[in-house]
Design goal:
single chain; aminotransferase; 31% helix; pyridoxal phosphate; four-stranded parallel sheet; elongated; alpha/beta; Aspartate Aminotransferase, domain 1; five-stranded mixed sheet; Rhodanese-like_dom; transferase; 700 residues; Metallo-beta-lactamase, Chain A
Length: 700
């Protein structure tokens, strides 16, 4: 078997996503292994092996009661917090009397999605017919007590959380309890305590909390184990029945290795002499150190929660003008693991928690969550601060962050660059040596990014044009005003087709339709065809005694083969304004439904890794420039960094040179490389593969 290629050693990883899950502590892993190998009996069996298993089960329950301060009530082992939430909701709603009109199920607006979805599920399945109502929160993420008091008299259940998983905001449970019990002494109350374990002291039996779910993997235990506290004499309906285990409260043979993990975890939490879990004072120092490093790296950083209301192990922040995806990717390349919010919502582009708190849209869309655990060591925090500095430097070199110093970064951008927002495409025509640029079909959401690029590279903007009808409030006009305000050389008359565009330009040889003059962008000519919904043609570089041809056509929404057949050549790259399928560009043959291109090479992972060891292979690292900078690929094969933004220019530059060369596309996860590989095959690169799973799988 081929030995895996290691881009960066696993021990180099800095894991700061502990609110999603945590690594398993060595002593906890040892307890799991010992139980699986030596104490593997069924706790319900009456022989010695079963009795040994029963001892672990009972002793873990006893220790768990000490940890959460619950000498009374039930402590039921579950598969995790989600099962605990389901069990609590089912128990409360099964017990509820047939509601009258207007009954409510209350839950905090910033609750984990498992809570409202469980409420909705069992409400419908049991035919309760109650109305789900989200309890509003203020800008600090704290629950609205007046709303609770007003709606609780008609509520069948109320669900809140102790600590929010995205922001670390901690609710005032003592005050909340007084508000709830003054209005509704008997209403079932569930508190999600998942993020609070190990970060605060518990005394659940001294409260009127009815249900409290916990999860092992949030505090250095394995996944698949958790427990649920149920207050004595409160409604309970088993979610799983058939066997009678857990005193009839949860059937199924207990997960003894997982329970043994909790046993060791509980011992650590109860041991006042242990050095594994740091005191709150140390955790606060960690947070301050990380926050200082982040603020130095990102001067426009804004915290999305107040520190005084949050546990010390969570920082949620946004950086104005920098999408969370860009920060996450460069952090990941630097081997720092963070998230853009809840791990259960990783495909969502904004944070519902920050939306509920009423924060600005840009903060919700750009949020980063950094979370560490109470067992984190000082060396990890020190290393994280250094890596954060390196990641920010890479973002500045890519012009995604503007520096307040005189740093001069040499951009790798040259030629045609495609920027995207969802399916909308904006094109930059850049001449690197002349420091000139034209913008075609600007997208409002990309305006700040373009402004930063212009300011960072000191480009002279020759024109901001659109394939739509020009108006004073068009994206092109708005962007030109923004560029003027930033002090760049972009005169207001450069909005739309400039009056200075030469009328006597020689028409490129592929074009058989009239053009409205041309504009020089460095060593290339940009032509306009039509006026109402124009298209733009970009010539090949001007050369002595050589007739220009049309290399690129920016066609907007124009899909008329009749017009394009007259305006462009067979090899012209057609760049549309909207690209739903990530085609990147098209050729005339494709528009005319003529098959072209090659098939993607389908080889196994071992052969792909073998390709990476061959000098004749070209590896296209399609990660962004800042990702490549912090984790360059050191391989026997030739490596080129070609992000998707620059892929159309790469196709133009190399489709003849590299047509038959072995090419492996590679990125962080395999998603971008899959897109790149499919595009290259369409344009005649006939020996292309991509590394499914990406760099994430190289270190397995």
């Amino acid at each position: 078997m081929v030995t895996p290629i290691h881009i960066r050693p696993k021990e180099d990883e800095i894991y700061l996503d502990c609110n999603a899950t945590t690594p398993v502590l060595p002593q906890i892993a040892a307890a799991v292994s010992h139980t699986m190998e030596q104490v593997f009996g069924n706790p319900s069996s009456s022989h010695i092996t079963g009795l040994q298993a029963r001892y672990i089960l009972d002793n873990t329950r006893r220790l768990g009661r000490e940890v959460i301060g619950a000498p009374r009530g039930h402590l039921v082992f579950t598969s995790g917090a989600t099962e605990g939430i389901q069990t609590a909701v089912l128990s409360a709603l099964t017990h509820a009397q047939q509601p009258t009109q207007g009954k409510y199920l209350l839950y905090g607006a910033t609750e984990h999605k498992a809570v409202p979805q469980a409420l909705a599920h069992w409400n419908e399945l049991l035919g309760i017919g109650a109305e789900l109502k989200a309890i509003p929160v203020d800008q600090n993420g704290l629950l609205d007590f007046d709303f609770i008091s007003a709606h609780l008299p008609q509520a069948l259940m109320i669900c809140t959380m102790a600590v929010n998983n995205e922001t670390g905001v901690r609710q005032d449970l003592a005050t909340l309890e007084r508000v709830i019990r003054q209005v509704a002494p008997e209403v079932p109350w569930m508190v999600d305590c998942v993020q609070m374990l190990g970060k605060a002291d518990f005394a659940l039996s001294e409260t009127t909390i009815d249900y409290a779910p916990f999860s092992g993997h949030k505090l250095y235990g394995p996944k698949g184990i958790g427990f649920l506290y149920v207050r004595e004499q409160r409604p309970f309906t088993p979610l799983i029945i058939g066997g009678g285990q857990e005193q009839g409260l949860r059937s199924g043979t207990e997960n003894l290795p997982g329970i043994a993990a909790l046993h060791t975890l509980f011992e650590l939490l109860l041991d006042k002499q242990q050095q594994v879990f740091k005191p709150v004072t140390v955790l606060n120092q960690y947070r301050e150190q990380l926050l200082e490093a982040l603020r130095m790296a990102f001067p426009s950083l804004e915290l999305n929660h107040a520190l005084e209301y949050s546990v010390p192990t969570t920082l949620n922040f946004s950086v104005r003008g920098v999408p969370s995806r860009d920060i996450m990717d460069v952090f990941d390349a630097a081997n720092i693991r963070v998230s853009s919010g809840s791990a259960c919502s990783s495909k969502v582009t904004r944070s519902f928690v920050l939306d509920a708190m009423g924060l600005d849209d840009w903060r919700s869309q750009s949020a980063i969550r950094l979370s560490f655990g109470p067992a984190t060591e000082q060396a990890t925090i020190d290393a994280a601060c250094q890596r954060i500095k390196e990641a920010a430097h890479a973002l500045r070199q890519s012009c995604l962050l503007l520096s307040d110093t005189n740093e001069d970064f040499d951009s790798e951008l040259d030629g045609v660059v495609q920027l995207r927002f969802d399916a909308h495409c904006c094109y930059l025509v850049i001449d690197r040596s002349a420091r000139e640029m034209a913008v075609i079909d600007p997208v409002p959401q990309l305006a700040e990014r373009i402004e930063k690029l212009v300011a960072c590279q000191h480009y002279r903007v020759k024109a901001v044009v659109t394939t739509e009808q020009q108006g004073a409030d068009s994206p092109a006009a708005m962007l030109a005003q923004l560029l003027c305000a930033s002090g760049c050389d972009a005169a207001r008359d450069n909005v739309g087709w400039p009056l200075s565009a030469a009328a006597d330009c020689s028409v490129p040889r592929d074009c058989d339709v009239p053009t409205d003059g041309c504009l020089l962008v460095g060593n290339r000519r940009l032509y306009r065809v039509g006026t109402r919904q124009p298209i733009y043609l970009l010539s090949s570089p001007i050369a002595a005694n050589a007739e220009a041809k049309v290399d690129f056509a920016f066609i907007g929404e124009q899909a008329s083969p009749q017009l394009l057949n007259q305006a462009v050549g067979k090899h012209t790259l057609l760049c549309a304004k909207t690209d739903e399928t990530f085609a990147i560009a098209q050729l005339l043959d494709e528009l005319n439904d003529t098959p072209c291109g090659c098939e993607l090479v389908n080889i196994g992972p071992e052969q792909q890794l073998e390709w990476l060891r061959r000098p004749e292979t070209l590896v296209l690292d399609v990660r962004e420039q800042q990702e490549h900078q912090v984790t360059p690929l050191e391989l026997p094969a030739q490596v080129m960094n070609v992000p998707l933004t620059r892929l159309v220019q790469f196709i133009y530059d190399y489709r003849e040179t590299f047509a038959d060369r072995p090419v492996v596309c590679l990125c962080r996860s395999g998603n971008r490389s899959g897109v790149a590989a499919q595009v290259l095959t369409r344009f005649g690169f006939c020996n292309v593969s991509h590394l499914a799973g990406g760099m994430a799988l190289l270190n397995l």
